[in-house]
Amino acid sequence: MQLPEHIASALQQGDDETVAALTREALEFGIAARKILDEGLIAGMNVIGEQFRAHEIFLPDVLLAARAMYAGLDPLQPLLEREGGVARGKVVIGTVQGDLHDIGKNLVAIMLRGAGLEVIDLGNDVTPRRFVDAVQESGAALIGMSALLTTTMPVMKEVIALLAREGLAKKVKVIIGGAPVSAEFAREIGADAYAYDAASAVAHVQRLLG
Amino acid sequence: MQTLSSRLAAGEILIAEGAMGTLLIEAGLEPGGCPEAFALERPEVLARIAREYLAAGAQVIHANTFGASPLKLAPYHLEGRMEEINRRAVEIVRAEVGGRAYVAASCGPSGRMLAPYGDAQPDDVETSYRRQMACLIAAGVDLISIETMMDLTEAQLAVRAAKSVSGAVPVAVTMTFDATPRGFYTIMGVDIPSAAEGLIAAGADIVGSNCGNGIERMVAIARAFTAVTDRPLLIQSNAGLPETRDGKLVYSETPEFMAGYAGELIAAGARILGGCCGTTPAHIRALRAAVDARRA
After folding, report:
1. How many domains does chain B have?
2. pTM surpassing 0.95?
3. ipTM of the complex as predicted
4. Which residues numbered 130-169 in A keep a CB inside 8 Å of some CB on B?
5. Where are the domains of chain A?
6. How far apart are CA A171 and CA B291, in angstroms?
């Protein structure tokens, strides 16, 4: 087994110590940080995500895998920032007001940075005002929103409405994601895209930013 | 008033109230606001809600204390008023119902994840619950209703906390399950046999489920509980699963639809029937009518 595959496997086991150790070993071996991220950490989290969606595993396994992901990310982060090069666009990302779920949103942020974008991560429980203020202050051309509770999804519509009221509807693209979110919901509320997972989020963002 | 436990022991079916959250939002609860603060700031709203559910035929009415544990109040900086919030919430309901209904304390999750998944220690969570339970029991509740639980360990801590304050007040625990191809599990991976075993071992008198499902799935959940325990079941069903229409949340199971399943729910072991998200006094009225018709 190659090191990145070994990392993915350890991540799925929730073994944060092994993930951290193997990540450092892979770096010493000369494997690029980007490759370790994609084929190790993200590959592992993608399997976890699929298994969770299929109800084969539950939240404890997801949380332990996420902890292992962050443990592997720690030594990679400074190198990824260096490898990223010139920022190819700015995006604002956050989990909507009333919602504290952020593993998926964090994964998207990591991957967008890995793709060379500047990401302003507003964290959790972000109000429509904060999303729009961040876009105005930073000049970001895109907002990415995550919700994992059906009850917080309506906030996404409010953000889009606020963008429109401030005359930003055409200037700022909106992409949404999260377990209860759907392409249909995205259409209903006038979002520009819906992403099923982090990988497709990156593809959509790159397409939307041109 | 005859005790709740003796009526359940005699095989009676009782009706509990419906959703609280929706009514609070209608009354002006802001996004990000603390629902439990209504006991301090807008007690007349809580009084009205209790009156409406009593008029609809509810025989068990929960006080608005779901998020009133010290841990859950902390993000709102209201933990210093925990005793007041819990006591007033109970007093408001009791003032409306007197001896015509049982006052239940609603106790929800602490909002924290127990180690190793999060940073909360079992002792701290149990202490938080014990402090809340002490206030609720001192205020005179007839039932402790630990609800919307997803983590079995946390639920057990809540049960033990209640029982450590008083062995005389019955304790109900309802958990929230998702339907999966392999059966019903909470989001933390607890199945119904494990839930029943663990909760009863901790001292729960009544077990069951609330939230997460419409009435049909709740019937299946009740059956799964009855297969492993003969404890009385408390079932509080959603009015279906939430759908978004036009960017708004909608629950589509009507009072008639829900009430149509009352018979099956009772046959499946439910002894206290109530409503959760999306249900209204109309749903409770329909449930009560269906149960009364069976009694006749």
Report:
1. 1
2. no
3. 0.89
4. 150-151, 153-157
5. 3-84, 90-209
6. 58
